[in-house]
Amino acid sequence: MGAEKLLTPEDAAKALLVKPTTVREWLKRGKLKGVKMGRLWRVRESDLETFIKEMK
């Protein structure tokens, strides 16, 4: 089993059809689960898929 792919806020924004700043705001507020690596946010692919399912 390989490591799960981590997406940048920009990658997540493209998938969600929103701006990267919106994704970062959701990450800060905890609306979207993410991993903070130093100053940078990353989103697990599975967390993004869960978020999309919950939005429907």
Number of domains as seen in the coordinates: 1
Cα distance, first to last residue?
Answer: 29 Å
Give the mean pLDDT. 95
Assign the structural class, choosing from mainly alpha, mainly beta, alpha/beta, alpha+beta, or little secondary structure: alpha+beta
Beta-strand content estimate: 15-25%
| Series of H and E elements | EHHEEH
Brief descriptors of the model:
single chain, 3 strands, globular
Structural write-up:
This protein is of the alpha+beta class and 56 residues long. It has one domain (6-55). Helices cover 52% and strands 18% of the residues. It contains 3 helices and 3 strands; from the N terminus they run βααββα. It has helices at 9-16, 20-29, 45-55, and strands at 6-7, 35-37, 40-44. It has a 3-stranded antiparallel beta sheet. Helix 1 packs across helix 2. The chain is globular and about 30 Å long. The mean pLDDT is 95.
How is the secondary structure organized here?
Blueprint: E1 6-7, H1 9-16, H2 20-29, E2 35-37, E3 40-44, H3 45-55
Antiparallel strand pairs: 1-3, 2-3
Helix pairs in contact: 1-2
What's a quick, concise take on this entry?
With 56 residues, the chain is an alpha+beta fold.
